[in-house]
Amino acid sequence: GLRRIEVLANSSASLTSALANAKAGDLIIIPEGYYILSQSIVFSGTGAPDRWITIQAAPNASPTLDFNNAGDFRISGSYLWMEGIEII
Hints:
This protein is mainly β.
């Protein structure tokens, strides 16, 4: 079935775990917060035409992922939707 994964607020470890373990059909919710990341994230999760992986801000939230000049966010999968997240 489809999974709803809620990241813990301001927890970079929770965020990276959710992204690393994403599967087709997952909905990953990121709450308001400032997530400081010390290395690149290579998102390689792949959804499917009928089961996209969705990564979105929680309602009324504007989370920020800050790589602090130590990395970047790369996408190497497909069928991925991101919404409402700022990446620095």
